[in-house]
Fold these 4 entries.
Entry 1:
Amino acid sequence: MYVVLIYDIEVDDNGAKASRNIFKICKKYLTHVQKSVFEGDITPALLQQLKLELNKHIRENRDSVIIFKSREERWMQKEFWGKEDDKTSNFF
Amino acid sequence: MYVVLIYDIEVDDNGAKASRNIFKICKKYLTHVQKSVFEGDITPALLQQLKLELNKHIRENRDSVIIFKSREERWMQKEFWGKEDDKTSNFF
């Protein structure tokens, strides 16, 4: 399945550290697209594994993660405007 | 069609103002989900109108907007972890 993962980490004393850890974990499984946005193909099992790893760093009452899931990438077209720091984008 | 819009505005002198304007414009067309993340059903014509309005505030070499488009919402399941400030989410 194809997913887009977006995280929002509260900027407080431990926020920067949590954010760095979450970024590194996401990078192991998905492609970095923009600041706190990742995308990519992933199996349900690996997505579960990613969640377990992230759960160690996500602070339930402060931080949030959203995952948009689609069965296939072609059902999720992507469009970019402005400054682009992602090599995998596909303009439509 | 169903879209997820994510913007990333560079934090500089005019960044705060640009961010406020962009937030207000997005709120007219889509549902706010998380910090700089919006989602919702929108027609191609209205998406074009949204782009034109945003283009007045997006600074090409500093800011970026990503839009993920899917023909229908049901092809884009959403999952939330942690702090949730969106009433339209649907857990799976």
Entry 2:
Amino acid sequence: RKGVSPPQPFGARLRFLAEADRLKTVLRGTTIFDGSRRENSAEHSWHLALYAIVLGEHSVTDSDPARALKMLILHDLVEIDAGDAPVHGNHDPALQEAKEQAAADRLFGMLPEDQGTNLRALWDEFEAAASDDAIFAKSVDRVQPVMANLECGGGSWIEYDVTIDRLEARVASKIRLGLPAVWEALRPAVEDWFSPEGKAPAE
Amino acid sequence: RKGVSPPQPFGARLRFLAEADRLKTVLRGTTIFDGSRRENSAEHSWHLALYAIVLGEHSVTDSDPARALKMLILHDLVEIDAGDAPVHGNHDPALQEAKEQAAADRLFGMLPEDQGTNLRALWDEFEAAASDDAIFAKSVDRVQPVMANLECGGGSWIEYDVTIDRLEARVASKIRLGLPAVWEALRPAVEDWFSPEGKAPAE
Ligand SMILES: [Ca+2]
């Protein structure tokens, strides 16, 4: 196998970009919208970027679209080492966070120092949901799986036996912080699905 | 199957985002970097966005990173209808362009009119390589498959029986317009692969 090993800064940047390719092999709890297979975290991140472009004007935070886009492209890279922790799963949050911090150290540490520091700061900001851009980006990250599950007839809501109360606590509450009107637009279909009739398989 | 059908503008935007999901099922000529499977156009678009973030400072055009990022997120959507036309394949360019124009009409036409017009204009600009942002974005789109092929031992260069002259004409010439220093950094490994010894399978 011929690797890519030119001198700095290209060597560092190109090795980081090659390593990032592995995000295409990290599988999530949700499926693609036709339900045919699990979604991977790279294509998921692309979809979120498209959501941010299309839904940006509904953001209630004073968000800079370019920063939010960057965050969404970067936000799942740590899953290369730490794996995906499905929002409705029962992972240990402290352990998962420790794994993700170690992954961020390793991955952003592959880049030339200034750039690694800048991109790591953007990832930290996203993780902390500590700014208008991060709140918007987090809303986008929460709303896309709701649509995936509605489109494929339940998806991870069935697999993880999710209740509407848990959806409210872990998902809707986050969407409302950044994209309340989008949540209101989706709510009737969500409530319908969680109603006793909604979960019954189609005839 | 429960669809998503709230009123305008959400209905239009959410239906567009659901339709866009199909890009995850469009397979390209190249593989992911470990060679284990074909790459799909959605995860490819994510990877290009990351390339643009990481390599932006090497752009020789006066490119606006936010516009280039948007272009890269949008640029392959037309493949949902038109399919991927591999750069080393022998498709009819006029026919492929007609298919892509029809696809752009349909897909961007799903959005509220102002937004559809804006995003379509960005896609047209990318296709025409008619601006600094588009030249940078096109360079990124050409350089990532070179790295994929180097990483997996040849990939689509073997499948399409590519010569270094064809690579120069269809790929390197485009990379040089936007990211000449990145091409120079990759060139020794590329020339090595295309040398008589380089193509020999590893012992
Ligand atoms: Ca492309």
Entry 3:
Amino acid sequence: MGQQLFTIVQDGGVTTPRGFKAGGLHCGLKKTDRNDLGVIVCEVPAAAAAVYTTNLFQAAPLQVTRESLNEGRTLRAMLVNSGNANACTGAQGEADAREMQARMAEALGVSKNEVAVASTGVIGVLLKMDKVNAGIERLPSKLRDDAEGGEQFCKAILTTDLVKKVSCVSVTIDGQQVTIAGAAKGSGMIHPNMATMLGFVTTDAAIGSELLQEALREVTNLSFNMITVDGDTSTNDMLVAMASGLAGNRELTRSHPDYEAFFAGLRHVCQELAKMIARDGEGATKLIETSVVGAASDEAAQAIAKTIIGSSLVKSAVYGADANWGRIIAAVGRAGVPVNVNTVDIRLGDILVLEQSSPIAFDEDVALAYLKGDTIAIHVDLNMGSGSAVAWGCDLTYDYVRINAAYRS
Amino acid sequence: MGQQLFTIVQDGGVTTPRGFKAGGLHCGLKKTDRNDLGVIVCEVPAAAAAVYTTNLFQAAPLQVTRESLNEGRTLRAMLVNSGNANACTGAQGEADAREMQARMAEALGVSKNEVAVASTGVIGVLLKMDKVNAGIERLPSKLRDDAEGGEQFCKAILTTDLVKKVSCVSVTIDGQQVTIAGAAKGSGMIHPNMATMLGFVTTDAAIGSELLQEALREVTNLSFNMITVDGDTSTNDMLVAMASGLAGNRELTRSHPDYEAFFAGLRHVCQELAKMIARDGEGATKLIETSVVGAASDEAAQAIAKTIIGSSLVKSAVYGADANWGRIIAAVGRAGVPVNVNTVDIRLGDILVLEQSSPIAFDEDVALAYLKGDTIAIHVDLNMGSGSAVAWGCDLTYDYVRINAAYRS
């Protein structure tokens, strides 16, 4: 996986790459006094890229951000509110998203197309714009280029999340140290397809927006698009990346000798964030990692890995530490891709439970002890070809139901 | 829906149609003394039809039954065990299914290809054939042609089901009273695709096996294939129909003036059974009925109805009596079919919550009172075309998780 190509930056965050400041505050959209408005600002125009939800009902801020990025390929700021998704809010919702963008641009002294806007929270309720506008006025005074600035931003984007989600690595390009950082939020309505819940990537690499867009798309397919919490694809999923170029490397191209290191670093950051989202899935107590090998193609392996990770029965069994591999094979069989029904091997961690599609006697106590851990690996080998994929999810618990039975109330 | 074409037979069951006996007993596959082996027997060779799961890993009894029905198109008996699915059990599992078939045939004095076999329960464990064989020996003495026989059979096919699932109607064909009855089981791993959990239909109509097969297939697509409990398609889904022909009507054809009545009756029986399965979904407290109209096609409407009914977030919200229509519109938007995002209406029962894709203010107290009922109707009008569909499901509750966290233990 190229781990040697990058170094993990402990305690790094979105303000670690050169040129970035961040901040957050409570403007009044959340009922408690938790942060609900945050911004990341770059001191120079940053090359920018974004991927969006495939849900047909895209929230207003996504439409506004997409439109702006189509006009110019640089960003100076990413503004986010939590507590209200500004989705299915009609013409007023779109006007509100545009107002957020324009006011933030004015407060920062940049052009409005250089401000991306994002929202997360309840669907179908108009934003309280008096509170949002007052918050935007105060935001510039909160900007810091240190860890505290990144921390306040990360708090501002959470909803039902229990923990902040940040990852940071450094890579060497042209002998220069380049940093790549990301922050994300997401806990429920997680079944990203071509995009994710809210994710924000900052880097000081010099890279054009076109190549950044391609890299972001490829990495998304190996990270955020391979997680599921509940099979529900949000109206608000968006991942935005900004590259300040202040690291001093020659501009990256696909043939640049260090492009592979940049890509590996970006992939690591996004996969870490994706796993953090899966582990912090609503009500979750465990991270489930499903790897599928020996498939006819990578696409087939992806379909199977995501079907397993999405199975309510598999998720419930993992919660109960029940080595119920029958539910895994049933998921393999309904994934909609070709499978040789006689050659499937299944392992739970290192424990072989099915070989060539026949049950293998295993020590139930050993399996129970393994399944009581907080990270559960499910390995499926189809023994058909060379296709492979990894997907991440979480267990299904009482708390998932409790949280979602009363989210809006 | 043609309700006037048939009459509901109160307290009718699989032994109500002329020519059928049924019975059940406890042979020892279930840990408690509940029935776990049952059979329906016809006194004459009955025209037969069946549909099977689309899961690639089909259980051994399905393979055996399919093979037998391919050789001859009549059945004298349908034998079922619960407590063990006999799925993913390799060559020994297939031999066991054949032995069950052969011993039941011998005990009844019929040929083995005239016995369908079915199993439901845990996957990947070999059947205790000594117990099954002893049970088969005793089964003929348990056969009765009254309601008690049907009752004992129905009990024998249940696993995590809480209630028996039976439906019976009568229709008039050629002036003769024809009865159609069905029994089913299913509570978890319910997301049938071209077939269902175990379902058994008996009728005394005179109808050839070919037309019966066509009717069964068409009706399945309007009933069992439109329910979901948890999105997991079982390895054992099977629906079998037997027609004794003892009602005395002229053999049905598609052009027979009363074929429509027979079809309407069969559809009613299967839809009632499907709704009973959805309402009795593992842990469920409510039946959810989703109707989609105004779609570009019936197929598009089906995709949307099943996406809504399968959404964990929608299911959790219904459990919590939360009028969270944002989750419904999010499901509409990710169903993978074309939708005009500006023209969607949504109603919860009679309460309009979204019109032309814009939120409508509604009385939360009235909505809460409605959502606290035990049957929740979700109506979606896409205002695009004339496609429509109805799907059924249930809420997602703490008990679903409890049941499935420890099913195998």
Entry 4:
Amino acid sequence: MSVTAPLGFRAAGVAAGIKSGGARDLALVVNDGPARAAAGVFTANRVKAAPVLWSQQVLAGGRLRAVVLNSGGANACTGPEGFQDTHATAEKAAGLLDDSAGEIAVCSTGLIGERLPMDVLLSGVETAAGQLSRDGGLAAADAIRTTDTVSKISFKRGSGYMVGGMAKGAGMLAPALATMLCVITTDAELSSEQLDAVLRAATSRTFDRLDTDGCMSTNDTVLLLASGAAGVVPDLAEFEQRVTEVCADLARQLLVDAEGASKAIAIEVVGAASEDDAVKVGRSVARSNLLKCAIHGEDPNWGRVLAAVGTTDAVFEPDRLNVAINGIWICRGGAVGDDRSKVDMRPRDVTITVDLSAGPHTATVHTTDLTADYVHENSAYSS
Amino acid sequence: MSVTAPLGFRAAGVAAGIKSGGARDLALVVNDGPARAAAGVFTANRVKAAPVLWSQQVLAGGRLRAVVLNSGGANACTGPEGFQDTHATAEKAAGLLDDSAGEIAVCSTGLIGERLPMDVLLSGVETAAGQLSRDGGLAAADAIRTTDTVSKISFKRGSGYMVGGMAKGAGMLAPALATMLCVITTDAELSSEQLDAVLRAATSRTFDRLDTDGCMSTNDTVLLLASGAAGVVPDLAEFEQRVTEVCADLARQLLVDAEGASKAIAIEVVGAASEDDAVKVGRSVARSNLLKCAIHGEDPNWGRVLAAVGTTDAVFEPDRLNVAINGIWICRGGAVGDDRSKVDMRPRDVTITVDLSAGPHTATVHTTDLTADYVHENSAYSS
């Protein structure tokens, strides 16, 4: 179902030959309308790949006819030539669709610092255009995989409309190669401004709270396209809820597929003076290599949680901090609490609850443990 | 020589029995004067161990008669009882030295969240007081080791005075257990205000630029004590230079002894608009798990360097960034530069040069690679 679950969309996924080995590596998603409002959110990294720079320009117009996505190369740090390659890709798709390149977004994922093989890529766009279909969502989701072990798709039904999506990324554990790309579609009728507000709200509470190694990709892109084909103007609150559900579902799939991880860790911050504080604390805990190693070793090391909390400027008093791991409050008032031997660390899912005792706000940040496999995967890659 | 290289200091290191296994675990450093001016810098972590809270209060007075240091337990996150334990330690030393507890600093290192065995610790203080000698610097340096494989000591000669020091810490790779502790002594005559200014300047360019895993300990402490026994008022610039040399020497020893590391990585940032920018960029690169894995795999992955630079707010243009690894400029103008196969990644020392092309300022941050051994050491510890 994926991006073709909503009416008005066709897609295709083909093996263009960008990757060696014959796997699918190029996807095309087309919005046949009648509307073509769209919005996008992009990596905050100041070193942005050529397709990000291109697609940001395109999205400034608030309209998208199509999205071309490739795996097998990120087209990042490739200079003006790399930008020309992205432009040529959009022009190729525009020619095939008899439309304007100015309404065609491009997404790339793979290794940084290498030019894309443009001959095979452009002929792949042509092949994909010839295979566009209402059933193409799954093939498209498959074609954007890099180190992903499975395709990630989701769809949710609203009142008279659908929201569908696909994503790639192995938990952002390796964003320099495993960039998070996501395309979400709907057949509801919305303006680009509405889509933009909804997408920012949805991603800020889902993808943005997935922090597996603190690294930030040069290519991360999330796009939202509305065809209006269902002829329904949705209730905005309900629509935001559906889009958030699709994003949360895809984010969860990314986390489960994280490279080299043996534990999925949810850091629930409660009792925060603000939601910002809660996110800040959650992110600091999620980025502690020491804690992530401890969780890998099934050691409920609350001292490392406190040490991570202490590096933030969130509102809290050190002697009022409480920490539970898998429901056992092993730290109370900043000191030893319940018996740590009561904590069952065996399940794959680990929940760390941090109570700041400073207010009513909460947030949950998701991460994974740090393993020798992570080191192996990220030291063996690339050369 | 260590902390007893300068005149006016005695020290001892004994096996009190805090650690199992009979290794030395308690050190005492005493300033016999005639002066006792002192200064300290402490962890910026808001979750501070009891000995840090105690010693900060003591140093507010600008004078130190002695320092008691123990390994085998950090006395962090131990509540009011832990603070009382630290206080009792200082009182014990004060009684033995016939002095005031208000001029005795305490430093602890080891596991967080456990009370110290006060009976053995206090009798250890007594034993140490009985063994104080002008030759005790090496035994003291040995007694503060945790996972350190070697003692870290240093001394430098000024014009008519000496500066000596000892430190412990395995590269801050595991600050929750391997806290960085450092005691520096001099027989020159200085005020506590002068010592404070010199110590802040020296540590900000040495220990503060060692960033092996981005984690920040609850116990980090650096103390500087001046006995005035040489009867020399030093030239302040020369004195700052000598103290900085001692700190740099000790910092280098910490880095070389970093747990689980196979590479020592220097990140030289040049062409920065300010020194702050240079440090910020160096630190961001030093904290990239992806890059640290790549260096471990001897992969000169400049894309991951750029991705880390791009997360900062330093002044730079992405298309003017240059990166060299071990002297080969493999990234020029934000894109591919010289042939990456020319980079020799085999040496243990790796230098990554980042040219921001934005100004005349520079800074170097030191880190290590990320290895499966790091994961192993930090997941196996504690329980």
